[in-house]
Every structure is written in C-alpha cells, then in structure tokens.
Amino acid sequence: MRAPIGDFDTATPAPDCLDELTAPVADAVRHWQGAVPADRILYVETEPQWADTAVFVEHYGRDLLQHSANCVVVAGKRAGETTLAACVVPSTTRVDVNGAARRQLGARKASFASMETATGETGMEYGGITPLGLPTGWPVLVDSAVVDLPYVLVGSGRRRGKLLVPGKALAGLPGAVVLEGLGLTA
Asked: pTM, whole model, 2 decimals?
C-alpha cells in the first residue's frame, strides 16, 4: 500500500503488523474502538538513526514536516501529587508546558518527565513515544492543529518505524483533550 504522506516504500495497516510495535501500542491497535477504523492507522518502516525530525524529513520527504507531531510526556505537580500526561503537538512547535499543559492538568508546576520516567511508565522507547497505548487514565493533550490533519506522522513506540494516523483519530483516544495553542511556535 502507498503511504498517504511521505516517501515510504510501503505502508501497512497497523493491525497487520502488530509484531513491529511495542506491546502497549500493539494492544491499543488490537483493542481499537475509535470512530476511525484501526486499519486506517498505518505503519511505515524507518531507520532509527534517522528518527530525529530534521534528519527524518531529509530522507522521507520534506512535506512530512507539516504532517508530523511530537508526543512528549509531561509531569504536573500539585500538593505532592504528580500527574503524568502526554502532549501531542505539531513538530514545528514546542509544548506550552507551563501554560496550556499546566492549566489543563490543574498543576501548580509542570515540566517534561525524565527519560527514565517517560520510557518506564509508557513501555516505549525514547524518541518513539506515541499517543497510542499510553497507560490507562493518562490525559492525552492534543493540539487542535494536529487533529485537523488528514494524516499525521507519530512515533510507533520504537525508534524504528512510525505510525501514520488520521488526525481526528487522535482526538478520540482514551483521555484525549483537544486544546488550542498547546503547541507554541518555536
């Protein structure tokens, strides 16, 4: 199958390649209940050494920069309690951690979670964290610009491989909250 965005050799419906995904992401695809059918979520094989956005778009298509999103884990703290959440923003922006994310989480202070916390809590590789398959109960804060994309490139849970997901499917994830201005222009 041809990928709807980017210059990839093939795109495979995610339900047909669960072995290529980390366990939490494979489980999310296997038990998918979103309004967008699971077979519209596509997996593309990529090289891990090209995982960083700038290098990635040089190899797989410059148009991907406008169709890519980063998923980062943030930690909101209030009264000794920590809430972990995922923030999904266009790759051309940065997460408004101390503004939009902090307010949505009702936190007094917010920061990016450490790499150990992000990978340990998600069961995913650093640099490949994706909004699919996050722990139950986590808020998934999604910038509205991501939801508006026909397809968005996100991690697959590993540094090798990416997912192409219809933007509106991200708005339907468990715990998803769509926010205006979550991503700030860098």
From this structure: 0.94
User: How many CB atoms lie under 10 A from the CB of residue 61?
Assistant: 16
Residue by residue, what is the 3-state secondary structure of the chain? Answer: CCCCCCCCCCCEEHHHCHHHCCHHHHHHHHCCCCCCCHHHCEEECCCHHHCCHHHHHHHHCHHHHHHEEEEEEEEEEECCEEEEEEEEEECCEEECHHHHHHHHHCCCEEEECCHHHHHHHHCCCCCCCCCCCCCCCCCEEEEHHHHCCCCEEEECCCCCCEEEECHHHHHCCCCEEEECCCEEEC
**How many other C-beta atoms are found inside a 10 Å radius of the C-beta of residue 50?**
16
Q: Note whether 42 and 6 are within 8 A (CB).
A: no
User: Distance (Å, rounded) from C-alpha 20 to C-alpha 156?
Assistant: 9
Cα dihedral: 60, 114, 116, 14 (round 10): -30
pLDDT in tens, 116-148: 999 999 999 998 999 999 999 999 999 999 999
Distance of CA 32 to the CA centre of its chain: 16
